[in-house]
Specification:
Blueprint (H helix, E strand, L loop, with lengths): L1 E4 L14 H9 L3 E5 L10 H6 L3 E3 L2 H5 L4 E6 L14 E5 L6 H9 L3 E4 L14 H20 L7 E3 L2 E3 L3 E5 L3 H12 L3 E5 L5 H7 L3 E2 L5 H4 L13 H15 L4 E4 L14 H5 L6 E4 L16 E4 L2 E4 L9 H17 L16 H6 E4 L2 E2 L8
Helix pairs in contact: 1-11, 5-6, 5-11
This protein binds nicotinamide-adenine-dinucleotide (NAD).
Length: 377
C-alpha cells in the first residue's frame, strides 16, 4: 500500500503531515511512502531527510497521488489539488468543515474518502490521535510566550538592589487544553494567574495548577457541560452576570489570554472593547479564538491591533509558529490513526467502516457527504 504526504499549498501553513520518524514507522508496517517535494521545508525537514528515512520524493502532485491508498495533509486540500487521486483513497487531514459544505461536496465528488481528524472521539483509545489536543496544547504555550514578548515589563516578581518588580497578572479565559497549558506556562514564568470557564469541572483543574478560579457559580454553571465534555452556549442572563464579574477583573490585569470555543459555533464574545480599553497602557490580549471570530471585540484575525495603548493580538495558527514541534506531534497523531486501518497480515489498507473512530471521522465516502451536518448546505 502507498501513503502520500502532501506539501501544503497554503503558504501560511508551515506544518507537515509526516516526519522521518513516522515515515520509518509506516515503512515497518509494510507501507511505501511518497512525500511531495518540499513538504517539510516549513518544519525544518528536507527532502533528503525523508529520503534517508525511506520515502520516495515526488516532484509532481500527479506522481504523488497516482496509486496512493492514503493521502495525508495538514489542511483540507481543494478538489482540484487532488486531480489524479484514486477513487476510494483515504484523505486524512484537518478538514475545518463547519461553514465549508460546498468545498466538502466537491471533495467528496473526487471519490476519495474524506476523514476529518478534528472529529476524533475523545476516548482513551484515541488519545494518541487527538489533533485538537496536540495542537491546542502548543497554542496555549505559545500564547503566553508571545504575550510575554509583547509586554513591556517582566512577568515574575523580582527583588533587586534597584528595587522590587511586581509580578504580572495574567487572566486566562477558557480552560480547555490550550487554557490549561497557558496557565501552566504563565505560572512557570512567575505570573499571578487567574482563569475562568463555564464548565464547573475546570475549577479544580485551575486550582491544581496553582491559579485562582473566577466565575459566576450559579445553577446554570453547575450544569454547563455537555456529555462530550464541551461547553454549552450560556443564557443571556448568565452571560450578563459573567460579564460584570469579568469586567472588574480584567481592568486589573496585565495580560489576558482568551481561548473560549464552542464546537461548531462562532467563538463567544467575552471581552468587549470597553473591557480591553479598561486595561492600563502596555497591557496585552492574545485571542486564540481569532480564527473563529475572536473572543475579544477588538480582535482582527491575523493582526495586532493597538487600541488606547493595549495590544490585541489576533493570533492565527500559533502551532504553526512552532512548526517543527507541531508537525512532530501531528504526524504521530496521524500515524496512530492510520495504523488502525492497516492489516498486519496483508499489509494493505483495510478500513473497518464499523470502527467508532472511522465512523466519527469519515465525513464523505463513495462520492457522498455522509456526515449529516454538512449535507447539501
Ligand atoms: P475547546 O477548545 O472547545 O474550548 C476551550 C474552552 O473554552 C473550554 O474549556 C470551554 O469550556 C471554554 N468556554 C466556552 N465558552 C466559554 C465562555 N463563555 N466562557 C469561558 N469559557 C468558555 O475545548 P477543548 O480544549 O477542546 O476541551 C474540551 C473538553 O474536552 C474538555 O473537557 C477537555 O478536558 C476535554 N478533553 C478530553 C480529552 C480526552 O479525553 N481524550 C482530550 C482533550 C480534551
Amino acid at each position: 500500500m502507498r501513503i502520500a504526504v502532501l506539501a501544503e499549498t497554503d503558504k501560511t501553513e508551515p506544518r507537515v503531515a509526516a516526519t522521518p520518524e513516522t515515515v520509518k514507522k509506516f515503512a515497518s508496517l509494510g507501507a511505501e511512502l511518497a512525500v511531495e517535494a518540499g513538504a517539510g521545508a516549513g518544519s525544518g525537514i528536507s527532502d533528503a531527510d525523508y529520503a534517508a528515512a525511506g520515502a520516495m520524493i515526488a516532484a509532481k502532485r500527479g506522481d504523488l497521488l497516482s496509486n496512493a491508498d492514503v493521502i495525508l495533509g495538514v489542511r483540507r486540500p481543494n478538489a482540484r489539488e487532488l486531480a489524479g487521486a484514486r477513487a476510494g483513497a483515504a484523505l486524512i487531514a484537518i478538514m475545518d468543515p463547519f461553514g465549508n459544505s460546498p468545498a466538502l461536496a466537491e471533495l467528496a465528488n473526487t471519490g476519495v474518502a474524506v476523514f476529518a481528524m478534528e472529529f476524533m472521539p475523545r476516548i482513551t483509545r484515541a488519545q494518541s490521535m487527538d489533533v485538537l489536543s496536540s495542537q491546542a496544547n502548543l497554542a496555549g504555550y505559545r500564547s503566553v510566550i508571545d504575550a510575554a514578548a509583547e509586554y513591556g515589563r517582566a512577568l515574575p516578581m523580582m527583588m533587586t538592589a534597584a528595587g522590587t518588580v511586581p509580578a504580572a497578572r495574567i487572566f486566562i479565559m477558557g480552560v480547555g487544553v490550550a487554557g490549561l497549558q497557558a496557565i501552566a506556562t504563565a505560572r512557570r514564568l512567575g505570573a499571578i494567574v487567574t482563569a475562568t470557564d463555564v464548565r464547573p469541572a475546570t475549577k479544580e483543574q485551575v486550582e491544581s495548577l496553582g491559579a485562582k478560579f473566577i466565575a459566576v457559580e450559579n445553577d446554570e454553571f453547575k450544569q454547563a457541560e455537555t456529555a462530550g465534555g464541551y461547553a454549552k452556549e450560556m443564557s443571556a442572563d448568565y452571560q450578563a452576570a459573567q460579564k460584570e464579574l469579568v469586567a472588574a477583573h480584567i481592568a486589573k490585569q496585565d495580560i489576558v489570554i482568551t481561548t473560549a470555543l464552542i464546537p461548531g459555533r462562532p467563538a463567544p464574545r467575552l471581552v468587549t472593547a470597553d473591557m480591553a480599553r479598561s486595561m492600563r497602557v502596555g497591557s496585552v490580549i492574545v485571542d486564540l479564538a481569532a480564527e473563529r471570530g475572536g473572543n475579544c471585540e477588538l480582535t482582527k484575525p491575523g493582526e495586532t491591533v493597538i487600541d488606547k495603548g493595549v495590544k490585541i493580538i489576533g493570533a492565527l495558527n500559533l502551532p504553526g509558529r512552532m512548526a517543527a514541534t507541531a508537525s512532530s506531534l501531528y504526524a504521530k497523531n496521524l500515524y496512530a490513526f492510520v495504523e488502525t486501518m492497516i492489516s498486519r497480515e496483508t499489509k494493505s489498507l483495510a478500513i473497518d467502516w464499523n470502527d467508532e473512530l472511522v465512523k466519527a471521522t469519515c465525513i464523505a465516502k463513495d462520492r457522498v457527504v455522509v456526515d449529516e451536518r454538512f449535507k447539501g448546505k
